[in-house]
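Exercise 7. Given the components listed, write out the predicted structure of the assembled complex. Treat all entries as one system.
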Amino acid sequence: MSDLHHRPAPADRPVVLSARSVWKVFGEDEAAFRARPGPNRAPAALERDGLVGAVQEASFDIARGEVFVIMGLSGSGKSTLLRCLTRLIEPTEGEILYHGEDILKLPEKPLAELRRTRMGMVFQHFALLPNRTVLGNIAFPLEVQGMARAEAEARARALVEVVGLSGREDRMPSQLSGGQQQRVGIARSLATDPEFWFLDEPFSALDPLIRADLQAEVLRLQREHQRTAIFVTHDLDEAIRLADRIAIMESGRIVQIGTAEDLVTRPATDYVRRFVAKVPPAKVIRVASLMSAEVMPDAVETVPAASTIAAVAPRLVAGSGPLAVTDASGLPVGCLDRQTALRTLAEGV
Amino acid sequence: MKTTFLATTAAAAALLASQAAAFEPESGETIKLMQADWTSMLVDTEILNIILSTYGYDVEKVIADDSARYPGFENGDLTIALETWQTTQDKAFNASVATGKVLDMGELGPQAREDWWYPAYMEEQCPGLPDWTALKDCAEAFSAPETAPKGRYLGAPVSWGGFDEERIEALDLPFEVVHAGTDAAMFAELKAAYERKAPIILWVYKPHWAPSVYEGSFVEFPAYEDACYSDPSWGVNPDMAYDCGKPQGWIKKMAWAEGEEIWPCAYEITRNFTMDADEVGQLVYEVDVEGRDVDEVAMEWATENESKWREWAACAAD
Amino acid sequence: MADTSPTSPAHQAGRTGAGRYAACAAAVAALFVLALLLPPALRDLPPAAVVPLADWTGDALNWFAREASIAGLPVSGITRAVASAAQWPIEALQVLLADGWAKGAGFNRVQIAPPLSWAGITMAAALLAWRISGRGLGLLTLGAGLYLALFGLWTSAMTTLASVLLCVIAALAIGLGIGIRAYRTPSVEPAVRAVLNVMQTVPIFSYLLPTLLLFGYGPSAALFATVVYALPPMVHATVLALRAVPAETLELAKMSGCSRHQTLWKVELPVAVPRLAIGLNQVVMMTLNMVIIASMIGAGGLGYDVLRALRRLDFGAGFEAGMGIVVLAVVLDRLTQTAARNRAQGRTGLWTRRDSLLALALLAVPTAASLAVPALAAWPKALTLTTAPFWNGAVSVINTHFYDALEAVRASVLIHVMNPLRDGLAALPWLAGVLALALAGWRLGGARLAGLLAGLSLFVVLTGYWQAAMGSVYLTLLAVLLALAVGMPFGIWAAGRPGLRHGIDLVLDTLQTLPTLVYLLPAVMLFRNGDFSALIAIASYAIAPAVRYAMAGMQHVPSERLEAAAMAGCSKWQSFVHVRLPAALPTLLLGVNQTVMMALSMLVIAALVGTRELGQDVFTALSRGETGPGIVAGLCVACIALSVDAILKSGASRAARHQGETHV
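Answer.
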């Protein structure tokens, strides 16, 4: 599987969640699928027998603190894959390893315990309990854990503030706007301070302006606590904005896993190519990809290696001559030719 | 203030209880008085309830169906019933008594009568009445559009039986039976017809308030004998049975046999309990026509006739 | 079923409308020819061939109730113990609400404590209504209390309220339990649904007798019968409400690590409350429906007042007591609805501790004062209001002045419509009937439906109730046609006038909770005993669903379609015929279905004015105490109901599919 088009998890961080050849097949005779030899698992062969391969042989590793986006059009199996990772849907075959432990083998109780303490999830349609206040909804996962009421409420209150809903603690969900409702959903998913954060198309039901706000919010909350986030979306812009890596799904298969830059510069299939065709390369190509290794000690202007070309565009236009490139700690690592960068900026405009 | 009041009433209750406690019932078990759904039985059963309760018996009134009562009496679900009408229950009652599990407690007093009945104003249109043969010639006076030229006879609810279809055939009467669904529906039609002085002939029974409120008479059929129902050769039609009127007869009290051992004095009181026809008629009138409460009417009777029922309860006097 | 295969007869026939009608006509003609040629045994089943199911059932039940024992304990002992256990809360409530605490009986009766004063209960209830809903409901509750007190119905109303409260609580708990089980174990669900369908269609009188046999006479038997009667809608509502909980919400429960127990009590039930409230509302309504029948077996209360008043032909008093039931129904309905809505919308904190104290004071002060002021314990008889003379007078006036006109209508309908239909159906040989049903089933839903219908009708034939069943079919058919002819156009008309909605709801609620007998007996005065009165009674009861569903169907036409029609330049009439009507058709068919069910459930009551059909058989069996025939005749009514239901459901789903094809 580890071909060119599947960028592995960053090596400097430990892998915390892995999927190994995960299959989810829908159909009357799901069990019979397991007995099938590999060649008979082609989509056409499955279809002949009334089976649908919603997720086909998904394999990947996710590192601690990474934002892993699963992207695809509706019906591509992205939500099913997310639910396989949390066992909301029972995969037909494969392994799902959390810190090396296969949760598909877990009995009900430890699984519930795992979800209670280490997972949080944000839902597409918010899934707020209509009979509880904002505070009650946020405190719900704590209540389920058996936490004392006062303590649960205190924590919930803190979270209300974090998501910017102060003063609305006692409102009912029906009295909130969609964006506010999803803020409650986000606060609730973080109530137990989970290690793994699952977000299932959390903003698809919201207006574009609110969506941008909440994306920033999600990034902030993820970075502050270095949570491992698995984010499902059908919106490429959203994926580019949030993702460390993106997995693109097409009818049940992951066709490519990579950074936004990978997808744009080295699309694995035609499908991916068409998918990313509208993305201006400057928005995804990073300085590091265009720089040359020669170091210019006397350069006046510097740009960070991790920035996209689009992000440094103002500085490109403002002066002349090459720019020094610095790494995260500010040390020079190379230089960027202004012409090369400007050409990239002009592409796809 | 409330506590004082409660204390006073409690003391009064204790005092009254101690007076009544001069007689101690033989058993604390509950006596279940059967009540069917007609008025006379509601009132006299409530009177018996008042009497037995006054002597400290634990009494409960239980509503049961007229015809469905026998299993209850045979297994002790029901203890005492004051009214069993010969007109409808003759065979069932005798059969039940024959099992030995049920006692015949004697007659209540009034005689039951039920048969074809017509309002007095119909005599003008059918001058031969009350003799039954007159019906042969003036059936049309009693007809309705859907039965014409035959007369329309409003029968009792199907479940009451009564053999009216057979009677019509046996006596060769040009009539059709239309069954009322219920007692109330039957008398509703009488009321409607009476208000308009419209033709009607129907099943009426007494003791009941209707014959005392509305003027009219029973048709005189050949008098009933056992043979009339069982022997075709009897009567005017040599080939068919039922060529006579309906049986008239007693209204009896009945009781669960084993209860005799448990509450002998209560059974004694029940045997002594009698009323005459006028008395029952008056009580029924108070309830059905004046619209008064059964309990109120019964209590009034009990207050007025205290010496009478204290006499019935001689066994409980000392 | 058949429609999935392109060669099915339904499909072929569907292509050519003319061919379909020709085939139908030919089939009917063939049946009649068949009828003439049939040997007598295939026309009327000879008595020897009748399966004595009624006897077996009766014997089995008698044995079960009297002699059987479970694990050494006699069944009768168990049931009686249950009955007396149930008696306890009934009596406790009755002491509190209606009778007060008394010692001794007869001449020695001493009242130790009075019941809660009517003034206290009324004010406390009004306070509750005001707090949870607002001034409107508060005033309504106050008015209801005053009506019951001033018209001298208070004690009876409280007796009724006591049994209604217990029944509702019991039906709620049991219904929820069964519903939750059916929801969680999908394999149980079809069986539960089948039993519920039969339970809902078997007339109440059928199981009154077994109830009496098991639990003895008295209020607890009435309680059990009522609970059995009110249970099905609660179970249905529970299953539907739980199914309607969004999948995401269930996922939330899982992701929060909820146990099964936590999922049910913290997530599923709270989210399902608004839909559960519909079930609760049905339970309240059906319990109050049952009140008058329960009073026949010893529950007392308002139902008994109605019966007593009607027995002495005091229609006015009967009407007043009947309206007492309606008033209770409306208040309970609105209160439960509001409470459920508040809960669903999370409106809490409406009722504070101070309100509780105030309510207690409102209850206690008048009750204590009633010791000194008897009018607070029971409204003095002398001051009791009554409108009875007015109603009685009105009935008499109509009787004396309009009788001839009414009689002419009655006679001509009876002679020209009802009797011919009755005689025609009575002459239909059973074999022809069974074949016709099977054929209809085959065309509508394929072999499975045909088998079901043939089976149901054969049950009726073999148990010997075919003739009686035809009597029921004739009455039901006419009553349904009448109810639809009046109700549907009215509903369609009213759908366009939202302002009328409140009033219409109130009228329909009244029609459905006012005990039928209240208008059945005046009808007898005007239309005499017999089928015509029964027809009027059945139709007036069955009209409510016809109106309701017509209104609902018309209101839920997608507005886009109406806009499309308007843009296409449709006239009002064209838009009605081409857009509204087809879109509403599935709902209208459902309305027809409900109308039929209501009509069938009324057959037994109609028997009270003297019909000759299954309802009468059930009623007669009840009054004669024959368990077996009562149950079997009741099952035959259920067979008719299930047949109609199956036919209309497949018709409705075809209509819905047709809608899908042509309009989406």
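Discussion: The two ends of chain C are 22 Å apart (CA to CA). The first strand of chain C starts at residue 69 and ends at 70.
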